[in-house]
């Protein structure tokens, strides 16, 4: 993985880039853009972020196409409308918008995933398709509805997604690699998400005896207060069961079903020329499902890293293969400590630290990440 950092001082924007290239095959990029001047208005910050991103597309990242964007906002109710007006003008990929305040004090941050040599299009059913080689990749962003409560909203989201996949000849169990659930008032509403997901998964042959899906369930809200749950998704058509490895790290983590939830700790997808690893939201937990180091943000951060490292090792990867990290904090007062810890250990890896309570109050911090590593699997088609 190659890392670059740029400071666009005239725009008060910093850019972190991770790039993976494997010769003549598809290259991929993860970029995180974040403002550095909290005193600017939201409009100024949004315009500056957009200007810098567009300059990257015509310069350093020329030839790469965006497949997925996620905007992190500090006040979605007052910011989403302006963002959507601008995003519609540049609607080139799947779009996710969530209120999870950037903890450096600015109002907006952006994560973008891009690839070269890819054919992409928006599908009529709301998914975004990217095609290269033998594979079709489907990204979904900010799916939501206004059903009565978090349970019904989650049930409807998943049932609709099952139908979207069926229209493409896919199933939830065989093709979905990653989900994200953003839950307003997660301490209250997460239980409904868990209940609905567990029940829908059973109907899709996703059980403790088969497998689940890598996922993050985290605090985050939509601009509309009636939306208590929104969902992002990623699925791949063309993969076989032999290409997918589920990560467990039993020395450090327990199966999620033991405490009533249904997701995989991580998933590795192996292609002919590379492997991609999706690590779910991971916190300071042990292999009995217990919170480790209650109340201590430093020790929780170190245990979280340890858990993630063991998951990566199971996929024959290390932190050096990471393309991005998203870090969630429950308490804004922990930001300076956590930023210092991450900057000291991972100065190069693109990251953003956000205000987003984890699904269990005792967890002060959680992180997720994506890794890509060169590989040779002659049994599988190249990416």
UniProtKB/TrEMBL annotation:
SUPFAM superfamilies: YjgF-like. One of its GO terms (cellular component) is cytosol. One of its GO terms (molecular function) is deaminase activity. InterPro entries: RutC-like_sf, YjgF/YER057c/UK114. Gene3D superfamilies: RutC-like. PANTHER family: 2-IMINOBUTANOATE/2-IMINOPROPANOATE DEAMINASE RIDA (PTHR11803), 2-IMINOBUTANOATE_2-IMINOPROPANOATE DEAMINASE (PTHR11803:SF39). This is Translation initiation inhibitor. The lineage of its organism: Bacteria, Pseudomonadati, Bacteroidota, Bacteroidia, Bacteroidales.
């Amino acid at each position: 993985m190659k890392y670059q950092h740029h400071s666009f001082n005239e725009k008060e924007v910093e850019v972190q880039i991770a790039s993976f290239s494997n010769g003549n095959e598809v290259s991929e990029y993860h970029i995180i853009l974040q403002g550095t001047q909290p005193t600017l208005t939201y409009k100024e910050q949004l315009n500056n972020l957009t200007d810098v991103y567009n300059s990257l597309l015509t310069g350093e990242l020329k030839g790469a196409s965006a497949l997925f964007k996620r905007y992190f906002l500090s006040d979605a109710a007052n910011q989403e409308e302006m963002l959507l007006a601008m995003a519609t003008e540049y609607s080139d990929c799947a779009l996710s918008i969530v209120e999870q305040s950037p903890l450096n004090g600015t109002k907006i941050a952006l994560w973008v995933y891009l690839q070269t040599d890819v054919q992409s299009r928006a599908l009529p059913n709301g998914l975004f398709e990217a095609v290269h080689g033998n594979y079709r990749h489907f990204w979904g962003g900010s799916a939501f509805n206004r059903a009565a409560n978090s349970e019904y909203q989650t049930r409807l989201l998943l049932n609709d997604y099952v139908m979207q996949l069926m229209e493409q000849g896919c199933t939830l169990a065989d093709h979905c690699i990653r989900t994200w659930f953003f839950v307003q008032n997660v301490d209250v509403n997460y239980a409904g998400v868990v209940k609905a997901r567990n029940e829908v998964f059973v109907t899709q042959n996703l059980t403790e005896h088969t497998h689940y899906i890598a996922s993050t369930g985290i605090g985050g809200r939509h601009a509309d207060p009636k939306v208590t749950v929104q969902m992002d998704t990623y699925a791949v058509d063309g993969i076989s069961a032999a290409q997918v490895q589920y990560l467990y790290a039993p020395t450090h983590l327990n199966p999620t079903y033991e405490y009533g939830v249904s997701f995989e700790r991580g998933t590795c997808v192996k292609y002919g020329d590379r492997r991609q690893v999706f690590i779910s939201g991971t916190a300071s937990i042990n292999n009995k499902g217990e919170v480790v180091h209650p109340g201590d943000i430093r020790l929780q951060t170190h245990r979280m890293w340890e858990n993630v490292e063991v998951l990566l090792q199971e996929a024959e990867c290390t932190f050096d293969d990471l393309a991005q990290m998203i870090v969630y904090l429950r308490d804004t007062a922990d930001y300076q400590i956590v930023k210092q810890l991450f900057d000291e250990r991972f100065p190069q890896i693109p990251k953003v630290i956000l205000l987003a309570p984890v699904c269990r109050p005792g967890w002060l911090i959680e992180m997720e990440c994506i890794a890509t590593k060169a590989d040779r699997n002659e049994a599988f088609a190249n990416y």
